[in-house]
Amino acid sequence: MTAASAIKSILEEQINAYRILLDLLEKERGYLVDINAGKIEEISKEKDTVVMRLRLLEEERIRLMKKFAEDKGAPTAVNLEELARQTGDTAFSELRSSMLSLLQRIDEMNKFNGVLLDRSIKYFRTTTSFFTSFTTQLPRKTGVLLSKET
User: What is the reported pTM?
Assistant: First the structure.
């Protein structure tokens, strides 16, 4: 397998992982709206796993890009646009475009979910404060409860 085809394979895996992350963020949005803490925690664990996989894929992509540059005698690593130009393979430009689009959607979804999360936290704090206000206003009485047997 050539370095270029290995890079293409890694990019396709990254795009699939980013799609999975986007799906998880969409599910998270629904759970945040429903205020389903258990499901939000599950999604958070799944997101951590996907992000770890994406980090590993990114490290491998960088390694392969450096290897490609070394094989071509380039002094520094090349980017995807340069890779497409050097190989003449338009698939790299398409993969780059797909990845940028996914990353933008993920960023937007993540920001929106952050807003929902902040609102959920405010809701819980307000609700907790509301109920706490009742407990502090009630006089605390001690006493004895008598039972009468017949």
Answer: 0.76
